Amino acid sequence: xxxxxxxxxxxxxxxxxKLAQAGFDVTMIARGKHLEAINENGLEVESINxxxxxxxxxxxxxxxxxxxxxxxxxxVKSWQIQEVTSKLESIISAETIVLPLQNGANNxxxxxxxxxxxxxxxxxxxxxxxxxxxxxxxxxxFEPRITFxxxxxxxxxxxxxxxxxxxxxxIANFIPENIHLEIWKKFLFIATISGLGGLTRVSIxxxxxxxxxxxxxxKTAQEIKLVANAKGxxxxxxxxxxxxxxxxxxxxxxxxxxxxxxxxxxxxxxxxFNGFIVKEAEKLNISTPVNxxxxxCLLPMEREARNS
Length: 308
Fold this sequence. Notes:
By secondary structure, the protein is an alpha/beta fold. It has 2 domains: 2-177, Rossmann fold, CATH 3.40.50.720; 181-307, N-(1-d-carboxylethyl)-l-norvaline Dehydrogenase, domain 2. Helix content is 47%, strand content 19%. The chain has 12 helices and 10 strands. Strands 5-2-1-6-7 form a 5-stranded parallel sheet, with helices on one face. β8 (122-133) and β9 (136-149) form a beta hairpin. α6 (179-200) runs antiparallel to α8 (211-230) and α6 packs across α12 (289-307).
């Protein structure tokens, strides 16, 4: 299988590295010093499951050099999807599968604005990893897993084929009964902690210690559940309880990647997290005052980050 990994950050770098290690033809889209290092020395992955180094079939920042892929894995941020997908149109075929793995509840919808439905499947991943240095990915926590499925949740031949690819690469994977519920379950957790974390600029344990802030955290999650349910996603109280169980178990000093982007003055996924909830709620005539507060307070910083 000819595989294109678009974005060699913590997600794309780890999973792309595993696929290359398994012998698949892997092309990596990277840029700058990261790309230079990969071309000079290969991609190094330091992992709690064992370190390895791979040399991709091709590493480039020029899509014109890329042959038509059978599978595209998107490792970019959710706010970059539309720009990246527009570029992919020129190289994919009617049979190419495009799998988004970024955080966010509406990544599939963004893809479908540009690509035919036949090209798109839904997905997410669980992993804690990042670019430590140019050419090096560091995986520090959590057993990496990819969850994926057809948009209509059918058990298609290509879904089973993709499972066999991930199995061969020794990537833990899961095909759920309802892929959209799984996407919203992860979105519930990450959107709940990211915005308030970015606004307070403290770690999760500090938010937990504050009765007032922890209450805001819970209200954020309840509003997300309201929007999900109004959109037909069966997000339930048990899923909120599970999310807060994870929040309670986060070690001291833990921050979300979007929070770190906000604090560093980089463009973040604010629009795709709290902003998405606020805008969907307005369409559905639902009140989400806590998400709106978080979103509006962070929006000036977000605009400044994007303008710079």
